[in-house]
Design a protein that fits this description.
The complex is a heterodimer of chains A (431) and B (190).
Chain A (H helix, E strand, L loop, with lengths): L1 E8 L13 E7 L4 E5 L3 E3 L9 H10 L3 E4 L11 H6 L4 E9 L4 E10 L4 E11 L3 H17 L8 E9 L5 E9 L6 E6 L3 E6 L10 E5 L6 E6 L5 E4 L7 E6 L5 E6 L6 E6 L5 E3 L7 E6 L5 E6 L6 E6 L5 E3 L7 E6 L5 E8 L2 E8 L5 E3 L7 E5 L5 E8 L2 E8 L5 E5 L4 E7 L6
Helix pairs in contact in A: 1-3
Chain B lengths: L1 H16 L8 H9 L2 H11 L4 H5 L2 H4 L5 H13 L5 E3 L9 H16 L5 E6 L6 H19 L9 E7 L10 H7 L1 E6 L1
Parallel strand pairs in B: 2-3
Antiparallel strand pairs in B: 1-4, 2-4
Helix pairs in contact in B: 1-2, 1-3, 1-7
Classes of the chains: A mainly beta (431), B alpha+beta (190).
Chain lengths: 431, 190
Amino acid sequence: MKLIKPFIVFIALSFGAAQAVLEVTVVKKDEDAFPIIVSHFELTGKGAQDKDISKIIQANLERSGRFNVVIPDIIISQDVNAQHWKHQAIEAVVTGSIEQQSDKIYKLSVSLFDVYSNKQLFTKTTRVHVSGFRKVAHQLSDHIYEALLGESGSFNTLLTYVTVTTDAKGDKEYRLNISDSDAMNVKSRIKLKTPILSPVWSPDRSYEHKKIAYVSFENDRSEVFVWHPYTRRKIEKLPRFDGIASAPSWHPDGKSLVLTLSKNGNKDIYSYTLADKKLTQLTHNPSIDTEASYSPDGTQLAFTSNRSGQVQIYIKNLSTGKINRATFEGRYNAKAVFSPDGKSLAMVHRVDNDYRIAMLDIKTKDLSMMTDNELDESPYFSPNGDMIIFATNRNNKNLLSVVSVEGNRSYELSSQTGEVREPNWSTYLEK
Amino acid sequence: MKKIILLPLVAILSACTGADGILGSNTVLIEEGGSEGKAVDAIVRDESSFNWSDLTNPFNKASNTTQAGAKAQAVAELKASDTNFVLYFSYDGADIGDKATQEIIKHANFMRDNPSVKLRLEGHADERGTREYNLALGENRALSVKEVLGLYEGLDGRIEVISFGEESPIAKAHDESGWEKNRRVEFIYQ
């Protein structure tokens, strides 16, 4: 584990107008990070000149903390000299070319070369529409990651987060943003003067079905909305319930969600099916029950409750109906989310006066501290389970932090113009 | 009429004299109040602040004070009369202490005297802990206040409860000096 000089990634590709772009800072990298050359791509044709997506791949691999990316000044040809790179302690070389074929269509060819075996691991050749470059760059990053590390990457995925800016008069603007996993390609279509909370991506893999559930105070009370960002940009509001409606979280089938309602003042967890608007009560307890989250197989539900007099995490087995307390360490454990393999929970854990992110092994009940900050909240796993994204506070400003589950790698996403909070990471997108 | 009002009042005032001041169920507290002379004394004192004539005929005053201006003036007078419009809470707590109960009684009396006013109770939390839990906690705080007011006949239906959780702090300091001001319920008359 070593601290490295912050590596600031700021790619301004001319396609896709970005707004409120977050600054990415790599804080900590793996000691044994994989040394890799990612060469600039060879560009042919006038339109190709500003489309060197090797920059996106470089930034992706660097940000993961598992690679030491070396960017040569000259373009390396796809005919790689293994002996030369071996001497420089480089283990893999990525090369590529982009050739304009028509106004909007480009031919892309990218190769991954393994220096030690002196073998080409793959060459991917594809035709790309001008609008698809970023997606292809993220897919290629996933291919490289998997070919070299034997694990899935999380690059071809999406983030959602809330930004807050304050104008000269002190008035706040809240934006619900979506972006690629590298915090680029930002779309912020929902802008309000009132708070936005808890955005969460539906588990659907296709853009057509992808939705974001979130909480908004735009009608002067907390209500749950479902936004379809890619289909007619539709926003549906869930029916009006008495009291608060909040803490939405999707069932793994994407057809229903769980949320907290306070009918008669008592906060319990309910499931709500979008198609038939059916509401089913899942907890019945006079204490606060909130922040529910399904296990990846949909058989269990973790939630926060103060039924013991302390704020702790409980897990409901949805087939037997049995509820068991999951956390016993500390007096405050809240907002738990399951890891993609279902074996762990990430949560907010209070130590003395600090609120930190901790990870619980559900079987052994071992609780490990992921951070040593003062005010962490809203943890969520990357889709490959390798990292946890959460909101933290530094110099009285919210920013996002991403740490590996082993704790040896981390990076930050911060805004120059305001605060960033409430992060959520999508599942893998369709290929 | 007088008797109906008196019973819940016994409940509130006996709660004030209790050790922790937490209001439990109506029935239990009435029994406690009946067995303690102290609580009865308190009722006699508080009775003087009640305008009984208004209560026996709620329309004799209300019909003339339905205009927004008159309501606003009544609220301004209440504010000027040394009544707290914000109540503060302990960390992760929603309990109402003795002093807070006294303030709530002033508001209850005011609502009795002004039958056309509606009250919105806004519950808030400090920034520590998760946003969603704090939203729930803020609502519990406002509901605790409403529970006391609801012991008075006819007030319950005029009270709206809202929670903003930690989203609307009044103090900016990120330490106890700010947090103690942000764990609150605000009384907003409409």
